[in-house]
Amino acid sequence: MPLWKHLSSLFFCAEVSGGVNLVFAIRLSMRRQGEYKVRPYNARMKSAEVAIVGAGPIGLALAVALKRAGIDYLHFDAKQIGYTISWFAPQTRFFSSNERIAIAGVPLQTADQGKATREEYLAYLRSIVLQFDLRVKTYEPIVALARNLDDDSFTLTSQPAGSARAECRVNKVILATGGTDHPRRLNIPGENLPHVSHYFRDPHAYFGKRLLIVGGKNSAVEATLRCHHLGAHVAISYRRERLPEKSIKYWLLPEMNLLVKSGRIEGYFQSQPVAITPTHVTLARGGAVGGEHFDVPADFVLLLTGYEQDNTLFKLAGLELRGDCGAPVFDEQTMQTSVPSIYVAGTAVAGTQDKYTLFIENCHVHVERIVSALTGAAPPAEPAPLAQPES
To answer: What's the rounded Cα separation, in Å, for the pair 370 and 390?
Structure first.
């Protein structure tokens, strides 16, 4: 019988950035015909019931919940725990109140009883790892994921730093990989110049210098205010007519509007950059590339225009994705994706977010849903909507 008649799905093998191969095999109906060889079981391979990929707040909350439920698991992250938070600028405060970003039932306390800073929250996450003795394989990205045809389990291949690749065998996979992997690029001349960055790290670098910030949502506004108060000469370019109130921390917007109105911060609204040089940025009026062009002097440029999810693993795993944001399709009660035994949690659920609707604070229920699904318990009740002013 021809081979094609046995195929019930596809086999994916792709090359992704950095030369890393990710492989995902979907079951072949051939297994019933006995016409192929199953990969032999390796008794020395590490095995567990579940693999968690991603060690942000929701990934760590999942690890604690699985440990409490007595479910054996392995945990991986390509970087350090809480990596996305680690590239926030020093002393950046969270939008959400402390009780809304606390995990695992452990209160989040701060010295001034205010909203947590980047440093306080990273310390909190480290304390969670220590308190619950979580074993996270940091700096160990998953580079291959394959369905085992003999028992429908998965083989995950990871790449530990400075070591040979390692394999493990699990029955379930939870993807808690986040949604802000890469900057949203403008693809304009000069974007890769050394004085241009897509990340606001330490405002001290801009003291006494001319800084143009591109963007108009919370990260751009916060960077603008902090650099202004530090002593930088700041201008902001935003493509809309005015700043979006719902996308900015409520305690920042009044000050920002006042400083722009008084001229202490130059506001170039309805404009967008079309080119960057070592000395200036060319903006187009009207928020369109075809508008009138003018130059704004700049020693440094911050392009704070958002971030995109790297969903390569989702695609190679055969997950059904929807919309321009590439969000995975999943069961609202269990968080199971279109591929059986693969679950998704945290902000990864939303794909690439433009208007942010998912944050730490409204992803806690994902943990309860997944653990309920794995243990056979009834799914948790739908949480009440969170009131503003919060994320």
So the answer is: 25
Angle between helices 218-230 and 253-262 (to 10 degrees): 60
The label of the residue with tokens 């390692």 reads 166
Residues 6 or more apart whose CB falls under 8 angstroms from that of 343 comprise: 172, 173, 174, 175, 330, 334, 335, 336, 337, 370, 373
Question: For position 289, what pLDDT does the model report?
Answer: 63
SS3 content of the chain, % helix, strand, coil (to 5): 25, 25, 50
Name the token pair of 185: 């690029």
| Pairing, β 210-214 against β 233-238 | parallel
Rounded to 10 deg, the angle between the 57-68 and 364-375 helix axes is 30
Q: d(Cα 54, Cα 142) in Å, to the nearest integer?
A: 10
Measured between alpha carbons, how far is 15 from 321 in angstroms, rounded to an integer?
A: 20
Number of H helices, E strands in the chain: 8, 21
Cβ–Cβ under 8 Å, residues 168 and 74: yes
Mapping DSSP onto H, E and C, the string for 125-191 reads: HHHHHHHCCCCEECCCCEEEEEECCCCCCEEEEECCCCCCCEEEEEEEEEECCCCCCEECCCCCCCC
For residue 60, which of 117, 95, 106 has the smallest C-alpha distance? 106
**pTM for this one?**
0.84
What are the tens digits of pLDDT across the range 29-86?
Answer: 333 333 323 445 555 678 999 999 999 999 999 999 999 999 999 999 999 999 999 9
State pLDDT tens for residues 220-266: 999 999 999 999 999 999 999 999 988 888 889 999 999 999 999 99
Distance CA 100, CA 78 (A): 26
| Cβ–Cβ under 8 Å, residues 308 and 183 | yes
**Alpha-carbon radius of gyration of the chain:** 24
Q: Rounded to the nearest 5°, which phi and psi values hold at 74?
A: -120, 150
Burial grade of 34 (CB within 10 A; 0-12, 13-18, 19 or more): exposed
* C-beta of residue 365 within 8 angstroms of C-beta of residue 383: yes
User: CA–CA separation, 119 vs 116, rounded Å?
Assistant: 8
Helix (H) / strand (E) element for 370: namely helix 364-375
**How far apart, in whole angstroms, are the C-alpha atoms of residue 114 and residue 106?**
17
